[in-house]
Amino acid sequence: MGPLSPSQPAQTLTHLLLVTVIAGGLLSLSLVCDGATVPGLVTPVPATPDPLTAGPLTDGPLTDGPQMPLSTPEANITDTTSAATGEEEKAAPMVEQHPPKEKAVEGEDVKFSCLLKEADPEGVVVHWIHQGPESEHTVLEGNQTSEERFADRAFLSGDVGHGDFSMTLLNVSIQDRGVYMCILTISDGSALQGSGTKLSIREDLGLLGLEESVGTIIGVTVAAVGVAIGLIALILTQFRDKLTCLKK
Predict the structure, then answer these.
(1) For the chain, how are helix, strand and coil distributed in percent, rounded to 5?
(2) What is the pLDDT of residues 48-79, one digit of tens each?
């Protein structure tokens, strides 16, 4: 081969640039048209399905990247009835009686409590029942006595307009002992019954009781004085014996 002419290096450089441009163009065209990747240069990115347009999930293996779980409408439904209405559940109507037990002496007056809760007192009908040791009696129907034994002695003594259907029984006697029940019939026709109050009656002994009490007090006092004198005598005897022993 002869010596190169001055134009040969320029022609060789031109050919190399032309080959490089043609190769780069072919490679770019191949990447754009065929979606091919060049190892080491481009990292494939798995496509994430759109949860709004993706079809239903299948039971087969997942090969197209992570899948987003599809929630059912039932899972996102909450019971908002209470929040929407803003109302709380109302308590059931009831009758409150207190105290459960009551004590009295013959001749005293006794008040039995009966309160209506969580209901309108308008139009309520009240009955007071006496459950004695041997029989049952109706004390009041509304504010009227139905039996002679309670006539002019039993009456409603509470504020009926505010649900207080308490009853007062005057001049109680031994025959009045037992359980007193308050029964209220409200506007919807249902009957509500209280827990009852048990009345215990103690006899009024009067002067006889006072005399017995005084006699008991005197007897206890005399006994206490006698015991005290006996103890003093025993102590003095022991002390005298000790002094006699010391003198010898």
Answers:
(1) 35, 20, 45
(2) 555 444 554 444 444 455 555 544 444 444 44
Cβ neighbours, 10 Å, residue 80: 8
Residue 42 corresponds to which tokens in the numbers above? Answer: 């481009």
What does the alpha-carbon distance between residue 187 and residue 192 come to, in Å, rounded to a whole number? 11
Give the residue among 178, 154, 177 at the shortest CA–CA distance from 166: 154
Residue 70 CA: distances (Å) to CA of 46, 57, 62, 73, 75: 19, 8, 15, 10, 10
Distance between the two ends of the chain, CA-based, in angstroms? 169
**Considering only 154-158, 162-166, 211-215, which range has the smallest mean pLDDT?**
211-215
Looking only at the bridges linking them, the beta strands covering 197-202 and 101-105 are parallel
Residue 120: the pLDDT is 93
Q: What pLDDT score does 214 carry?
A: 60
- Find all residues with CB under 8 Å of 156, minimum gap 6, and list them: 126, 140, 143, 165, 166, 167
Per DSSP, which regions of 63-196 are E strands? Answer: 94-96, 101-105, 110-112, 115-117, 125-131, 136-141, 144-145, 154-156, 167-169, 178-185, 191-193
b/e code 43-55 from CB counts within 10 Å (16+ = b):
eeeeeeeeeeeee
- CA 218, 222, 225, 227 torsion-angle sign: negative
For the entire predicted model, the pTM comes to 0.51
Number of alpha carbons in the 13 Å side-chain half-sphere of residue 62: 11
